[in-house]
């Protein structure tokens, strides 16, 4: 219960802080990001899930571990990506747009991809409505509130955004610490091949910005950080609904630990490239 509370607070505060950082002039320039959005869709709903599947198969990891990593790879739009975009000093407007669109699309595409993976026929209206409401209240609404503060109360947003980001950072640190305390022993017992599969998948998820030759550093950083942070809540929900195996749920949490650790390193590297 505590870890879920921390993840909810992390989602709310990171999206609120991201909205507060988006300038008015950036709001009207979102159409210029259309090619980036197309590439992000291809990467997050095609290349990354396929990479996770073939990597897991090549390493011959267990079926439940493969399902866990595949679910994470097919669940983009994690709200805490907003915090990492800010940490990497990326483009807040692009970061917010990517998170909002990927999160909206994953309500349909992620269950569909997972259903195809399992040999099912795809779309479920009840599941779509549930995921849509979760995504709106945990990501869409706080982003809109942040934008409202930036647009109508810019001075308040300037002051408040720093405290919101500090709170997000605290929630993230506590989440990682709690994951280590509660599930660290189990994670160590998973075996090196599952760890390699998770690390490899996370590294692929964090790398699309490196392929944007000629783009600005802020654009590359935003795409990489948003793509790297998966929606663990969505992956856990689908695992609870369709798999219901302890190994699957705990492997997803292990993936989250690896994801946050490597994302923090990548965010630092992107930030240092700006100051270099």
From TrEMBL:
Keyword Membrane in record: yes
Gene3D superfamilies registered for this protein in UniProt: 1.20.1530.20
Coiled coil: none
The entry's keywords: Membrane, Transmembrane, Transmembrane helix
Main location: membrane
GO cellular component, one term: membrane
Secretion signal span: none
Subcellular location: Membrane
InterPro entries (UniProt xref): BilAc:Na_symport/Acr3, Bilac:Na_transpt, Na+/solute_symporter_sf
Membrane topology type: Multi-pass membrane protein
Transmembrane feature ranges: 37-55, 64-87, 93-115, 127-151, 163-181, 193-215, 221-241, 248-270
Keyword set includes Transmembrane helix: yes
Pfam family, one: SBF
Protein's UniProt name: Bile acid:sodium symporter
Organism: Leptospira langatensis
